[in-house]
Amino acid sequence: MRALFLPLLLATAACTAVPQDEVATSLAEQDLASRMAEIEAASGGRLGVALHSPDAGTVFLHRGDERFAMCSSFKLALAAMALERPGLRDARLGFGPDEVLGYAPYAKQRAALGWMSGLEAARHSVTISDNTAANLLLAELGGPDGFTAWLRGFGDDKTRLDRNEPALNENAPGDPRDTTTPQAHAKLVADLLWGDRLAAADRSLLREWLVETSTGMNRLRAGIPDGWQAGDKTGTCGSGANGQVNDIAVFETPDGARYVLAVYLDRPSGTTAEAEAAIAQAARAIVAMLQQAGA
């Protein structure tokens, strides 16, 4: 099934009256599923969407169990792993000129010194998606295998990291390496931010970094109302026909409901700006559904 809306309606006998709120829910489900299909078709690519609530669980899925490349969206979980590792935030992570990758704005600032702290690496891996910072953390945390094993401890049996930057961005057709599913990653982010494994101060710090993030303002956050508290972590990878544009947003509605929205757009036919606009459209459709439900 390509789309799932919870709560699902139970089958009823023909003679049983269906409550009006269930009728409204069914119509909202159909409308949202149709809208996602329209956005996907217009993009020319494959769209994966998951809306997850830490209180209610999975709320909506479109291709939620299909695999998509994570691109840089893995860096939020990497930062969480770094915060959990004793002593890492205060450690000096040294690097040489040959480790400064093409997209590494913070590492380029620190190149003359040749090191950054673990806390700095975690922060800039999230807020500006610095690739060198992410690789430095991975090297301290057991590499991609260590990262994947850590995820299994959160009950995530789908997400896998196999390479570091920039190789993980290949996004070759049918390649399961460095992939996740929208449903798995939305739940993972909810567990990181609102579960009890990480210290409360670290969960708060991660949320601050997501709000500080500047790379996704044209993606999901462009479709989330200004009055709703929101942050996000982006991912962009592949090139040409193998391109992919992602975003994972965390937001809270005015009534205090909390959500994670994960959207992956694989191999869109247009430009990156057009893919970002499609992701923003997906967010607007989700927001409209939540507002219709009373948010």
UniProtKB/TrEMBL annotation:
Class in the EC hierarchy, top level: hydrolase
Organism the protein comes from: Qipengyuania oceanensis
Database matches in Pfam families: Beta-lactamase2
Reaction(s) catalysed (UniProt annotation): a beta-lactam + H2O = a substituted beta-amino acid
Domain of life: Bacteria
Assigned protein family: Belongs to the class-A beta-lactamase family.
Ranges of residues in domain Beta-lactamase class A catalytic: 48-264
InterPro entries: Beta-lactam/transpept-like, Beta-lactam_cat, Beta-lactam_class-A
Endpoints of the signal sequence: 1-19
Protein name: beta-lactamase
Keywords noted in UniProt: Signal
Disordered: annotated span: 161-181
Enzyme Commission number(s): 3.5.2.6
Molecular function per GO: beta-lactamase activity
An individual GO BP term: response to antibiotic
